[in-house]
Amino acid sequence: MEFPFDDLPPASAPADTHDRDKRLLYDLRAMQWPDRAPRTARHVYTDGACSGNPGPGGWAWAVAPGGEPHGSGGERQTTNQRMEVRAVIEALRAHRDHSEILVIVSDSTYVVNCFRQRWWEGWLSRGWKNSQRQPVANRELWEDLFDVLVSRGSGKTVFQWVKGHSGDPMNDLVDTLAVQATGA
To answer: Residue 74 catalytic?
Structure first.
């Protein structure tokens, strides 16, 4: 028996992925990536943690200055880098109705440099290969993050680095929440 949809290409055809990546690259290039935000902008601290790498991991976010609201979660088998990216995704999703600029503050150079140094542009231009021509780690998380950022709109998200374990009270708070979320 033949079905009317038998001749349709599979949903995950390489051409679809390539077209999606081209569109994502176009959308991200069209966005403004400010280095600074107004002092009144909402600052959301994020962090990831892992007990062993890989191992049980946790992510967390919290709004400065008092740490409320906040969110956290974990995964059984993961890496620290995955949890750093997941923390940002979850923070942005929790603030999807916040139309003003958000400042994502992270101690992860992996996250911050992706946007401050436009690593995403090279990754997408090279077909999800890093500068060493190796597959980009955690691609599916980066794709989720890029989609969330595009939906937030141009100029609406600023990435700021903070030195980890340096006494910054908000960074210490999200670190504690992320470690607790590992369940270790």
So the answer is: no
pLDDT in tens, 63-77: 999 999 999 999 999
**DSSP-derived 3-state class of residue 176:** helix
Q: Is 35 a catalytic residue?
A: no
Q: Is position 16 annotated as part of the catalytic site? A: no
Q: Is 48 noted as a catalytic residue in this protein?
A: yes
> Which residue from 127, 124, 176, 130 is spatially nearest to 147, judged by alpha carbons?
124
Q: What is the span of the domain harbouring residue 59?
A: 35-181
The amino acid sitting at 14 is P
Point out the catalytic residue in the list 68, 97, 165, 167. Answer: 165
Query: How many domains does the structure of the chain reveal?
Result: 1
- pTM for the structure as a whole: 0.89
Written as six digits, the tokens of 146 are 């890029």
